[in-house]
Amino acid sequence: EFEYDAPSMKTPVPGPKSKLSPPPHSLFISQNVGAVNFFCNYEESRGNYLVDADGNRMLDLYTQISSVPIGYNHPALMKAITNPNNLTAFVNRPALGILPPENFPEKLIESLLSVAPAGMTRVQTMACGSCSNENAFKAMFIWYKIKERGASGPSAEEMSSCMINQGPGCPDLSILSFMGGFHGRTMGCLATTHSKVIHKLDIPSFDWPIAPFPKLQYPLEQFVRENAQEEARCLEEVEDLIVKWRQKGKPVAGIIVEPIQAEGGDNHASHDFFIKLRNIARKHGCAFHVDEVQTGGGTTGKFWAHEHWGTGDPADIVSFSKKMLTGGYYFKDELQPDKAQYPHLLSRARGLGTFCAIDARDDVTRDNLILKTRDKGVLLGGCGEMSIRFRPSLVFKEYHAHQFLNIFNDVLAEYK
Amino acid sequence: EFEYDAPSMKTPVPGPKSKLSPPPHSLFISQNVGAVNFFCNYEESRGNYLVDADGNRMLDLYTQISSVPIGYNHPALMKAITNPNNLTAFVNRPALGILPPENFPEKLIESLLSVAPAGMTRVQTMACGSCSNENAFKAMFIWYKIKERGASGPSAEEMSSCMINQGPGCPDLSILSFMGGFHGRTMGCLATTHSKVIHKLDIPSFDWPIAPFPKLQYPLEQFVRENAQEEARCLEEVEDLIVKWRQKGKPVAGIIVEPIQAEGGDNHASHDFFIKLRNIARKHGCAFHVDEVQTGGGTTGKFWAHEHWGTGDPADIVSFSKKMLTGGYYFKDELQPDKAQYPHLLSRARGLGTFCAIDARDDVTRDNLILKTRDKGVLLGGCGEMSIRFRPSLVFKEYHAHQFLNIFNDVLAEYK
């Protein structure tokens, strides 16, 4: 057994080595110097036991705010991390968004994508939980605006106003969150966090809607009716807030919720509550973001806490960090804005099955695109004034579509 | 020499392995699928040479957006990172703000603090550049509000309103930034970023002041007068904006600037410009934050680009990431809000030299604190209605002050 047998206390905690003079942590803590509990000896810590600087050995039921998945210094993790093949990213700092490692897709498929939530086949990695939520919010804002604009690109006014933080380019969209929620402390996340004064005080925020989270009475079996009413009340308030914020000109682009509110007090709600909430989001055209940063990774008995809800379509975005040893978020296909490519050349993509068409900028462009695509080995057709039509056979497969898309992408990228 | 001799191209770029069908990067890129240049072979890359998935070997003058300090797979870095003693943080995920490793202060003193900017002896580490800037903004907001409130703690109204994103608890403070600036893409940072439409479009922002950055004419020797006028114009605009935003009820808590605007176009300004800007910040009670995420780490010829300005007091906060292989920010003592401790027991800290005093909540509390502190081995005095006075000898040293503070902190923490 790679572990100690029992706790062993030598001094009160914090012990002498954690009460040094001057206090060493004031060297490296900017905002809350009083939060340091004690200094730790991570080399001696093992499994479920944390050892502090004074040799006190404690059974750890907190694990760095729920971040240590399989205990301290697990041999399998030490082995994985001392394998030079796995260290290249730490040393070489690849900018994953422009120069990804060739084996990155494969590694993701083996690891993060092998545990992807139902309905999701894509994952964006991030350094921490806050960054994951921040970027998930941005994905929802972008998705919402593309939906609103349709196939046309942004207007000249949107493109100039966004550079100076003004609308319409920087729109007044909002994210709906819950009282007691905690989603991180960078400024976007913080606007959806409502846990403790010390997290919020003195930091500018956004005027976004905040719904009440159900306060269940225990034991649950004794308060079935009351709890159902409480949940219904909260869900009704969510809908009212969505309508109110739309009327205020700050429409809700997304709803964020934790399957169990952690920092806010371990507040639970029924599976039914979350399924209904997800449906409210869909009904009102909001994306639904489930924050599994603390609940994810197996701790609730299923890999993701939302699996307990028993639905095949739990969310549009699921964010994670902590036990997953990296941050990031899974997202549904619809949230990837690849439809916005080449808006100056193409618009009005439409179709049913493989009976598809897309408009070019004008008839000359349409004719040129068809010819250049033929030069590269793909036959297309035209119709109407400026449309390109697709009529592949009934034995046309997905890889044929990708062959076409690669070639067509080259044509579009080179077109002047 | 741990390196290749010369570039060696086998295919056009992107080559066949970077143009796979279906495109593998759509699995892991949420917001800008079109940005992937090509897939890389980081294991074969060495020194100044990046090797791609098709075996093309390129002299890399971009280094992952300026993030690779001493080349790919440098033996010294590989050695440091395969040392098990250095891996504990990756496996054990310490929450540094509450349970720091016992050797963390020492490691920081040896590493990050050994290259601290002039006037700074503290550093807060962060996972990336965006998080560093986000938290630096928060440090400036908190510092500004504590300055405003004086020694009294937050009001009941501030504490309740902040929980729901409202003023006064969430104040309308602002950060002044420059057109062409880039400070990251999470929502707070993004409000100070004005580089490209694709970074800004469709993301809600803050109404913060944005100043023009000097557009210098080259060659510099030929346009001395014009450039001096241009810089003076921009500095005047900075002051006008600070005054205007104060009148609007959104006072500027801090100014952020890069020593050379990178993403925005490699825009330079004279040392004189930055020194004057720093003085404008001081004059108007704003903190001054220099973003060295891209310019830091030696690339400009000095460790920090701001060292070229030749002043002993360049900034209040200096943020970093990229080449430093971790994110974070250095900060001046005044930005650490430890004066806010125990506001329910203490207030009105005042003094000159060691002739100091502090008020207790009332006379009974003052008397009790003095007695309890004496029980733990420190003698204090009282004066006035509810004050504690300090009158140490002229051979009283800093470590004596820390001895006292540790004991007094225990008394205050236990006091009911």
UniProtKB/TrEMBL annotation, chains A, B:
InterPro entries: Aminotrans_3, PyrdxlP-dep_Trfase, PyrdxlP-dep_Trfase_major, PyrdxlP-dep_Trfase_small. One of its GO terms (biological process) is gamma-aminobutyric acid catabolic process. Pfam families: Aminotran_3. Residues 1-22 are annotated as: Disordered. SUPFAM superfamilies: PLP-dependent transferases. GO terms for cellular component: mitochondrion. Its EC number is 2.6.1.19. It is an enzyme of class 2 (transferase). One of its GO terms (molecular function) is 4-aminobutyrate:2-oxoglutarate transaminase activity. Gene3D superfamilies: Aspartate Aminotransferase, domain 1 (3.90.1150.10), Type I PLP-dependent aspartate aminotransferase-like (Major domain) (3.40.640.10). Keywords: Aminotransferase, Pyridoxal phosphate, Transferase. Its cofactor is pyridoxal 5'-phosphate. Belongs to the class-III pyridoxal-phosphate-dependent aminotransferase family. This is 4-aminobutyrate--2-oxoglutarate transaminase. The gene is ABAT.
